[in-house]
Specification:
Layout: H1 2-25, E1 31-32, E2 35-40, E3 43-44, E4 47-54, E5 64-71, E6 74-76, E7 78-81, E8 88-89, E9 91-92, E10 94-101, E11 128-132, E12 143-145
Parallel strand pairs: 2-12
Antiparallel strand pairs: 1-9, 2-3, 2-6, 4-5, 4-10, 5-7, 7-8, 10-11
Length: 148
């Protein structure tokens, strides 16, 4: 009788143990450092937020949001995915569309910078494309926007 209860317990709880072990062993996508300069008409962007949206047309179907504040023309991306394990500095490999977002006027610590062409204010319209790679060339992540 004791053996039956033991066997029943093992059969009931073994799948739970396997599931828990499986959850702990998964890791998120590999994130690589992404930083660079942001310019508008060849002048450093003074303030704003640069976003990298996965470019589905170029095969990137990642479900992440990679962004960074821009200060004095410089940025360092952070990724936020659906799952906690997908979060961290950098971005997964692949193609992205870069676009800009600006805090509302009057937000403390922010001032609306220079004029930006409206196409760079959304992922759907942006023509700024960046490929995140394992070993980028110097300046590979520099983004050049225009006002016209």
């Amino acid at each position: 009788m004791v053996h039956c209860r033991w066997l029943t317990g093992v059969l009931l709880f073994a799948p739970l143990g396997i599931v828990l072990l499986g959850c702990g062993s998964e890791s998120g996508p590999k994130l690589v450092p992404v930083s660079g300069n942001v310019t508008v008409d060849d002048k450093p962007l003074t303030a704003g937020i640069v976003h990298f949206a996965p470019d589905v047309e170029k095969g990137n179907s990642a479900r992440i949001d990679a962004l960074s504040p821009v200060r004095d023309g410089k940025y360092n991306l952070l990724t936020q995915g659906i799952l906690q394990r997908d979060n961290g500095p950098g971005a997964p490999l692949g193609w992205y569309k870069a676009y800009l977002v600006f805090p509302e006027a009057g937000t403390p610590g922010w001032s609306f910078p220079m004029s930006i062409h409206p196409r760079y204010m959304s992922a759907a319209k942006s023509t700024a494309s960046v490929e995140v790679v394992e070993n980028p060339q110097p300046g590979a992540y520099d983004i050049k926007f225009t006002s016209k």
